[in-house]
Amino acid sequence: MTDNTLEHRDTQPQATADAAEPARNRTGLWLLVLLAAILLIWYLLSQRAPLPVPMPPDASIAPVPTDTAPATTPEGEARKPVASAAKPKPTKPAIAAPRETAPERIASRSPEPEYPATALRRGEGGDVLLRVNVGADGVPGEIDFVRRSSSRELDRAAQDAVRRWRFEPATRNGKAVPAVVEVPIEFKPQA
Questions:
Q1: Which of 4-18, 96-110, 123-137 is the most confident on average?
Q2: 176 forms bridges with which residues in the sheet?
């Protein structure tokens, strides 16, 4: 019997070492799957357009009462509505909603894009839509393509022209703030 237990003891460590090898492989596989999922999520989130800034509701607008018809007494006389029911009591002074403006191109400081000569010779035309991050100083920052034309030269010409443009910056409560604006540019070859 002692020989039997010794054999069993000798083979058991061998079996656990073999069992540990696939477990390590599975752990490595799960780590790779997790890393791939994180990278995929990061990529998808970086491709989304920036979200618009939510505006607070306008606090200066008072609710309008729905019952405006005067009530009558049984004798047919019109009763006067109670003043406190018709007007809501203000609890705080009305806060004006923040005023916002979007960035606008300054025409005198924004040259039109030059039509590339090779694209013009080939009769290439198209529309380019650019998303421009305009800084608080009115200078364009990052410029991305929302929609490209069928020509790389036209796309490059549009992007180069907008890079030289100057904008009246967006404002919020009278202060200049960075904002995003979409700029369409059309290239039409003359017939």
A1: 123-137
A2: 171
